[in-house]
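Here is this case:
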Amino acid sequence: MTKPYDFLIVGAGYAGSVCAERLAAAGRRVLLIDRRPHIGGNAYDCLNAQGVLIHPYGPHIFHTNARRVFDYLGGFTRWRFYEHRVLAKVGRQFLPIPINRVTINRLYGLELDEAGVAAHLERVREPKNEIRTSLDVVLNSVGGDLCDKFFSGYTKKQWGLDLSELAAGVAARIPTRTNDDDRYFTDRFQFMPEQGYARMFETMLAHPNIEVRLGTDFAELRRDIPASKVIYTGPIDFYFDYRFGKLPYRSLEFQHEHRPEDAYQPVGTINYPNEEDYTRITEFKKLTGQVCAGTAIVREFPRAEGDPYYPVPRPENELLFKRYQTLADQEEEVHFVGRLAQYRYYNMDQVVAASLALTDKILGRQVAQR
C-alpha cells in the first residue's frame, strides 16, 4: 500500500525540524512527531507567568562560524546581535571565564600585560607529552591552581566525573586568552533570534508538506510506520531497545525564578565552580534583550537521571555507541541525526549542519561549504 508520507521524522528539535523543512521544500510529504507538547526541542522558549521570555530547558545561545548555517536559519528569523559573557565565582570574586588577562590580574593581584600573562601561564602550566583526558588539557594550558579554582569542581558537578575521567575534547571547548577579550564565544556569527526560538521553529515548519503531531511517542507509530523512510533524532540506544545496554547521558534539573528587580546580575551567566550545588545562573533578559518589568533567572543542577541532555564523552562510551552505530548503518530506510542519535556533544549549529548534510545526501545534492 502507498504510504501517506514520504518521511516520518521523530523529534521536533533542531535536527528534526531542519530535516522536515528541507525535505518539504523539495516536495516530500513529512510527518514530524514529538512526545513533548511543543516544537523546538530543548531550544524551545516561552513567556513565563509574568511575561518574561525564558528558556525552560536552560539557556540556548546561538553562535557559529558556518555561513551556511547562519544564512539558513536567517531565512526563518530576524537576528539580534548578542555576545555572551560569563563570570565565574571564585572565593568572593567574580572573574571572567574563559580565563583572560583580567582574570589573572584580579585573581593574583598582578598588573601584567599580554606578554606578562603569556609568560605567567607558561611558568605555571604543567606540560603533557600526550593529551588524553580533560585534566591533561587543563594542566597543560593553565596548571594546577587555576585548574582547581575554575575547572575541577565545575566538572565534578556537571559530569559527575573528575577531569581525568573525561575525554580531552570537553575541556578543549574552553580557550585561555592573554588579552582582555571577555566574550565566551569568538565565532563570526553571534546572534539570538529576535522573536525567540519558538517563533523561528514555527516559521520553519509552516509548510503545507509538513504535518506536526505533538504529544506523540514514536512507540505509537513504530509497528505501522506511515512513511516510506524514517529520520530518527532520539537516543540511539532507545531505538534499538537497549540491546547492548544503556548509553550514559547527563541530565539537568532547572530551578526557574522570577525576580522583581529589572536586573539580577551583571552578565548573562555566572558560573559557580566550587561551593554551590548548582553550576550556573543565567538571566534571560541579558540574552534576549527583552525590555519589561522584572527579570527571570534559572539555576542549573546536573543530575545522573532524567531526560538525556549530554552524551558523556568517555572512550568506553564511544565504544558502546559504535556498536549501536553498526546496527544503525544496517537500517536501510532509517537515518540517524542529532546530538542523541549520533551520541555527540553538538552545539546547536553543529546539529543544523549535520541535518543539512543529511538532507543534501538524501536529495542527492552537492553543496559548497562556507
Summary: The chain is about 35% helix and 20% strand. The two ends are 42 Å apart (CA to CA). The chain has three domains: 5-83+189-248+311-363, 86-171, 249-303. The domain at 5-83+189-248+311-363 is CATH 3.40.50.720 (Rossmann fold).
